[in-house]
Amino acid sequence: MKIIKEFKEFAMKGNVIDLAVGVIIGGAFGKIVTSLVNDIIMPPIGSILGKVDFKDLKLYLVDTSIMDDKQLAAAPAIAYGQFINVMLDFVIVAFCIFLLVKVINILRRNEKKETAPVEATEKDCPYCLSKVPIKASRCKHCTSQLEAAAHG
User: pTM for the whole thing?
Assistant: First the structure.
């Protein structure tokens, strides 16, 4: 029963749940990008290049001149058209992530600008380490004389 308890503690940690959510959203995002590439980007590119469907571009490793459609489907081939689609998927995902990180960094910079540093109003007494006002010349806790340069 101890191992079940440990697993429950592990699984319920915030970073594990965040990772799971990220993987699920990443998978859904991947489907969106794949659809974007296959259904929106590739058809116009194929049309411009002479009505080519990149998914069908293959380099056959055997002579296909005497094969029927069934034999052609089973013939060994390098599917470089599908590779082009996958590479475009990757480039689009990478670009989207780049834009997302760029927006997050801009928001973080703006957040840092809004929170201007607050000027210190207290200092530590070097003798008792209590907090005293910055302009104090004597500690209110231990009554020690503070250095003149410290309250300058």
Answer: 0.50
